[in-house]
Amino acid sequence: MNHFRNILRYAIPYKRFAIGHIISNVFFALFGTLSFVALKPMLDVIFGKDKEVPSVKPVYEGLLKVGNFIEDYLSFYMNQFTGGDKSKALIFVICLIILMFLLKNLAGYLANYFLVFLRNGVIRDLRNAVYKKTVELPLSYFSEQRKGDIMARVTNDVSMLEYSFLPVLELIIREPLTIIFTIIAMLYLSPQLTLFVFIFIPISGIIISYVGKSLKRKSDRVQKEQGVILSTLEETLTGLRIIKGFNAEGKFNDKFQESTTRFYHFSNKLLNRQNLASPTSELLGIMVISVLLWYGGNLVLSDSNTSGLDGSSFLIYMGLAYNILTPAKAISRGLYNIKQGGAAAERIQEIIDTPNPLKDKINAVIKTGFDSEIVFENISFKYQDEYVLKNFSLTIPKGKTVALVGQSGSGKSTIANLITRFYDVNEGRILIDGIDIRDLTTMSLRSQLGIVTQDAILFNESIKNNLKIGNDNASDEEVIEALKIANAWEFVKDLPNGIETNIGDSGNKLSGGQKQRLSIARAVLKSPPIMVLDEATSALDTESERLVQIALENMMKNRTSIVIAHRLSTIQNADEIIVLNKGEIVEKGKHNQLIANNGVYKKLVDMQSFD
Question: Which among 103, 129, 473, 495 could bridge 501 via Cys, Cβ 3.0 to 4.6 Å?
Answer without folding.
Answer: 495
